[in-house]
Design brief:
The structure holds 2 protein chains of 2 kinds.
Chain A lengths: L3 E2 L3 H6 L3 E5 L2 E6 L4 H10 L1 E5 L4 E6 L3 H6 L14 E7 L5 E11 L2 E6 L4 H11 L5 E4 L4 E7 L3 H7 L13 E6 L2 E6 L8 E7 L3 H9 L4 E3 L2 H10 L16 H5 L14 H6 L5 E7 L10 E4 L2 E11 L6 E7 L10 E6 L2 E8 L14
Parallel strand pairs in A: 1-3, 4-14
Antiparallel strand pairs in A: 2-3, 4-10, 5-8, 5-9, 6-7, 7-8, 10-13, 11-12, 12-13, 15-18, 15-20, 16-17, 16-19, 17-18, 19-20
Chain B lengths: L1 E3 L4 E6 L2 E6 L1 H7 L2 E5 L6 E2 L4 E7 L3 E5 L4 E6 L2 H4 L3 H4 L8 E4 L10 E2 H10 L1
Antiparallel strand pairs in B: 1-2, 1-10, 2-3, 3-9, 4-6, 5-8, 6-7, 8-9
Classes of the chains: A alpha+beta, B alpha+beta.
């Protein structure tokens, strides 16, 4: 399959980005200042990220809400118009096909924002589960997505002319204009800081990107920083912390699911009755060396789990990881583990997530 | 005299020691370096052996011995400041010093201008 470019590829190259292929897309992993500088800038100020690779599906039609209530493990009908909700698309056995965010645009009108690599499978699965009269369109090609993230992101929007009152609250969205163009603006993100996600007509991506870059304190950040920022927050990345072999409970989201008998969705029986076969936990290490995905985790020289994501944490100055553990070990924070890296092992300690606790994500603007 | 390998290591002979490091091209390609596993003093390496590991935010890379020799010293500054390989890859960011090497092995490596041309062509 040919690698796809976003509407902003030319802009990234002008900014000396290093490009990599991610889920079939040619994306900036970093710009000239590097991942650590971009990470720190996002923690302290405000960054913009090209997230055009993600997919946008629109589900509409009489009864769409009721139909979706029977598909998604978290309630859709209880979600108010104007809000966003993190949710999952599951297999019949309750494992994760995708993690996604549902925007309720109107009573029977939803925007579903999905991962790039899983979009095609999501469409097939949703089409299979949705009644025929419910419409689903793939608006990904005509939609651009730019994330504005960092403790100063609200201030940036205020400098652009918004009042604090009109900006959306946490996990809410508004329709508005930026640089004279229509955008959907939500108070959501993947960095652990105050942040917004902007969706606009793909034709206007470049204009809005450039307008945001002209604002004080705003710099571009790539997928490298996006990954270390999300890892410090303990946020899962599809394909790493969750996949079709993992249920949302096994990925640590059991607390989000209301599994009472009134709720019916694919896999609900398995989630209600099945015993988890793994448990996702955070690990903090003693040094700068990182254990990477796939590294074995041992306790007293016995296999205890596998690293799902691991990297040096720029904010903490040590390496951190998430790992999938055998739940029968009943591990809790403070437990010492060993992680295999190359020809040696490093010492780690199970720790509560987020790893980074100073994130501004829920602070009001 | 500084010479380079196809894998982007460099060697610089200074009297009876050989400084080993990675080229500025390699440092730039790796991005922010977060950790360096340096070899232990007194360890013998044969040309091509994995000598050190350089980790960036995204990945870990083996560094191979460009010539054979015995480790005289690893760069102590890299423990607290591995980013020195980014800021000064071909000077202060050296990885280790070797002794007991055979200078004839240098003949197999590229001179600086040959290496720069090799980069352009690859």
């Amino acid at each position: 399959m040919e690698t796809k470019n976003t509407r902003l590829t030319k802009n990234h190259l002008e900014l000396n980005a290093r490009m990599v292929t991610f889920s079939g897309w040619n994306m900036p992993v970093q710009y000239s200042e590097g991942i650590i500088a971009e990470h720190n800038h996002t923690r302290n100020k405000v960054s913009i990220f090209d997230i055009c690779h993600m997919g946008e599906l629109r589900i509409t039609g009489d009864g769409a809400a009721d139909a979706m209530e029977l598909i998604f493990p978290r309630s859709v009908t209880s979600q108010k118009v104007g809000t966003c909700r993190y949710n999952f698309l599951l297999t019949d056995t309750g494992t994760v096909l995708d993690d996604l965010i549902i925007y309720r645009m109107d009573n029977d009108d939803f925007l579903v924002v999905v991962n790039a690599g899983t979009k095609d499978g999501d469409i097939l699965r949703l089409r299979e589960l949705l009644p025929e009269h419910i419409k689903m369109s793939d608006d990904s090609d005509s939609t651009a997505k730019i994330d504005l993230q960092g403790p100063k992101s609200g201030e940036t929007l205020v400098n652009m002319g918004f009042t604090k009152e009109e900006l959306p609250g946490y996990y809410k969205w508004i329709n508005t204009k930026i640089a004279g163009e229509s955008v959907l603006l939500s108070r959501t993100g993947y960095t652990g800081e105050i942040g917004f996600e902007l969706y606009c007509n793909a034709e206007h991506a470049e204009k809005i990107w450039n307008y945001l870059l002209e604002q004080p304190n705003v710099k571009p950040a790539g997928l490298g920083a996006r990954d270390t920022l999300r890892l410090e927050m303990g946020y899962p990345l599809y394909g790493h912390e969750m996949n079709t072999e993992t249920t949302p409970i096994e990925a640590g989201f059991g607390g989000m699911l209301k599994l009472d008998n009134n709720r019916q969705f694919p896999g609900c029986k398995q989630l209600r009755n099945g015993a988890p076969t793994k448990q996702l936990l955070g690990i903090i290490t003693e040094g700068r060396r990182a254990a990477r995905e796939g590294a074995e985790i041992t306790i007293d020289e016995k296999h205890a789990g596998i690293v799902t994501s691991g990297a040096f944490s720029p904010s903490l100055g040590v390496a951190i990881a998430m790992g999938s553990f055998d739940p029968s070990l009943s591990l809790s924070p403070g437990k010492k583990v060993k992680l295999s890296v190359g020809r040696s092992t490093i010492n780690g300690t199970i720790t509560a997530m987020p790893f980074y606790e100073k994130g501004s994500v829920r602070i009001s603007i | 005299m500084r010479k380079f390998t196809k894998d982007h290591e460099w060697v610089k002979i200074d009297g009876d020691v050989a400084f080993i490091g990675i080229s500025s091209h390699a440092a730039n390609e790796l991005g922010d370096i977060t950790f360096v596993e340096t070899p232990e003093e007194g360890t013998d390496f044969i040309v091509g052996d994995a000598l050190a590991v350089v980790e960036s935010v995204k990945a870990a890379s083996d560094i191979y011995a460009p010539i054979s020799g015995t480790v005289k010293e690893a760069n102590p500054a890299l423990e607290d400041d591995p980013g020195m390989i980014n800021s000064s890859p071909e000077e202060n960011g050296w990885i280790c010093k070797l002794e007991n090497f055979d200078i004839a092995e240098m003949d197999a490596l590229m001179d600086e201008d040959v290496y720069r041309t090799y980069l352009k062509d690859s």
